[in-house]
Automatic annotation (TrEMBL):
Pfam families: Dodecin. This is Dodecin domain-containing protein. It comes from Pedobacter hiemivivus. It comes from the Bacteria. InterPro entries: Dodecin, Dodecin-like, Dodecin-like_sf.
Length: 66
């Protein structure tokens, strides 16, 4: 029987939402192994002078515990 743990992370990118998710996976995978899935819980953007400066995502990362 497998045990799955879920952590929540926040990631951002100046390029877009897809890149923000990719950054989350890249950073989490440096310390977490056996990642099964990433659920994007929420999206957000940061603004300056009414212009988007960065894109952010809140992700739930699921991984199998050994």
């Amino acid at each position: 029987m497998s045990i799955v743990k879920v952590i929540e992370v926040i990631s951002s990118s100046e390029s877009g939402f897809e890149d923000a998710v990719r950054n989350a996976v890249t950073e989490v995978s440096k310390t977490i192994k056996n990642i099964d899935s990433v659920y994007v819980k929420d999206f957000k953007v940061h603004l300056k002078n009414n212009q988007i400066t960065s894109y952010g995502v809140i992700c739930k990362v699921s991984f199998r515990v050994e």
